[in-house]
Amino acid sequence: MKTKLFLLTSLLFACSSRESTIIQYMPHMANTPILKAQKGYDGFGNGASVLMPPEHTVARGHKPYRMESAEAAGAQLQNPLPKNLEVVQRGQAVYNNYCLTCHGPRGYGDGPVVNPFPIPKSLQSENMLLWKDGHLFHIITKGQGVMPSYAQQIQPEDRWAVIHYLRVLQRAEHPTEEDVRELKKQKAKAD
Ligand code: HEC
Fold first, then answer.
1. Does residue 144 line the site of ligand 1, with CB under 6 A?
2. In angstroms, how far is the first alpha carbon of the chain from the final one?
3. How far apart are CA 77 and CA 64, in angstroms?
4. Does the Cβ of 121 fall within 6 Å of ligand 1?
5. Which of 53, 61, 135, 168 has the fewest Cβ atoms within 10 Å of its own Cβ atom?
6. Is the dihedral of CA 145, 103, 65, 56 positive or negative?
7. Contact, 95 vs 166, CB < 8 A?
């Protein structure tokens, strides 16, 4: 009982002593003007209520993309991801979410939204088979012709993963002799 009473009085004392404090030490943060969104503010001299980052600022973790052309990217960039089941499955998910709508399930440009949307060039063309991964990375990053850039929607790693998946689609349509032999062997086993 005694301890409870003591606690209560000390609590009361603590409260009243805080209220009577009149000296504020460095009050700057406590007394900032309240800015209303979209209202504007004169403090920075340009009417804006937020400071803009200095020129050439790069967000933490962001790697600026510097390639000037698809050819340069093809010559200089390597796909950093290993070609394994996990990566290819990730690429497949990206493709099905972002690319299939226009490019179609196997890349022939027969996705569900084309016509009225423009019909894309085939991802199975001879050019596409020859172009390096970096070349394709550039097209996805920067866009090409009427195809928009996907830099905002798709993280660089997912862009590389979808390229591995494009290679799988291409190999399925252009199998090597060995692929065909292997497929026949597997079919014979299953029968
Ligand atoms: C809104 C429809 C649309 C979507 C979605 C789309 N593309 Fe395209 N894509 C196009 C069109 C149209 C072209 C032809 C552009 C041109 O050269 O004028 C094209 C061209 C390309 C090319 C170059 C083909 C060539 O022979 O020049 C590649 C590579 C490509 N797309 C990959 C992708 C990938 C990968 C995705 C998903 C991340 C994607 N596209 C999503 C419409 C689309």
1. yes
2. 87
3. 14
4. yes
5. 61
6. positive
7. yes
* Burial letters 30-41, b for 16+ CB under 10 A, else e: eeeeeeeeeeee
- φ, ψ at 136 (rounded to 5°): -65, -40
Q: Please tell me the residue having the least CA distance from ligand 1 atom 5.
A: 99
Residue nearest to atom 2 of ligand 1 (CA): 102
Query: What is residue 1's predicted lDDT score, i.e. its pLDDT?
Result: 52
Does the CB atom of residue 65 touch ligand 1 within 6 A? Answer: no
CA distance 69 to 67: 6
Tell how far the Cα of 60 is from the centroid of ligand 1, in angstroms.
30
> Tens of pLDDT along 32-71?
778 888 888 888 888 888 888 899 899 898 888 999 999 9
Pocket test for ligand 1, best of 92, 147, 149, 158 (most atoms within 8 A of CB): 147
